[in-house]
Amino acid sequence: MDERRTVRISKYLAKHLRHRPERIGITLDAGGWVEVDTLLTAAAAHGFPFSPAELEQVVADNDKRRYVIEDGRIRANQGHSVAVDLGLPVAEPPATLYHGTVARNLAAIRAEGLRPMNRHHVHLSPDRETATRVGSRRGVPVVLVVDAAAMRAAGHEFRISANGVWLTDHVPPSFLRLPG
Predict the structure, then answer these.
(1) What class of enzyme is it (predicted)?
(2) Mean of the pLDDT values across residues 74-84?
């Protein structure tokens, strides 16, 4: 499968497994899962057919491991704007986590900290390199340093998704080191 097709399928999955399942007539269960056959049938019925082999390749080859297939079902690992409970237990984060953003967001971040916006959680990266890649999707990246140890000591909870993304409800400005 060529790179363009892989990207198109991955974006299609993101839209319908994280944000708009109803658009193609699928229903995610409470944990965000849907039967693979149901997804394939719905995608074909809505003008975007792809094969089980293509789906498996997109899931296996995705560098961010955004999706998982288990027991004939598929779900996104995190990033949902629809109500799901991924069932992730509270976890002890590393002392420092990172968040990639762009300069135009810094004023709001200084005032409010990191908020989930239209998602359920704030997404944090375990390393600077990953945060840089995340921030670069929207322009020149700015990497923020999160004092996760201090947050945890103050009672904030963290969870880690299946693909290594750290999730929390909010990062107050006092736990962030911002550039300049």
Answers:
(1) transferase
(2) 89
